[in-house]
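User: Hello! I'm new to structural biology and keep hearing that structure can be predicted from sequence alone. Could you demonstrate with DUF3021 domain-containing protein? Please show me the input and the output so I can see what each looks like.

Assistant: Of course. The first part below is the input, the amino acid sequence of DUF3021 domain-containing protein. The second part is the output, the predicted structure written as tokens.
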Amino acid sequence: MMKWLTRLVSGGIIGIAIGFMMALAFSVGYGADVFMPSSPSFVSEFSTNLWATVSSAGLWFLMGVVFSGSAVVFEAERLSIVQQTSIHAGLTFLLFTPLAILAGWFPLKLMWLLSYTVELAVIYVALWCLFMWQAKRRVRQLNRLIAEKRE
């Protein structure tokens, strides 16, 4: 239980760090006069920039929890890499998407959702390729060790 809680809290803290760094990069990149924790339309929903930042930090924390919590699927060795990646993609899509919309990252419109879905699919295909490459490399190493022991 404590290990699980530690994983979620550390994931949330990492989520805040990543969210802050991305918001800072976008603020600087777009030449904003003040720190913008999200899109101008999101920030305008709050009475002050401080409350927009506090709300963003909460959403970033939850995003980190989603990714750290759903990562346990990759520890399920009885599942194939395709199953692990598919389950993780489904979980993150269902849990992360509403948070991204709430954070003002994109509007709740069909074309934006389709674009986001395609981008997420490309990311997960790339992840699957990486995991397959790692698994094949691990199998080659194990086969080499077995061959060495037989000699």
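User: So the tokens describe the shape?

Assistant: Right, they're a compact way of writing down the 3D structure. Reading them back into a model, for example: The chain has a mean pLDDT of 92.
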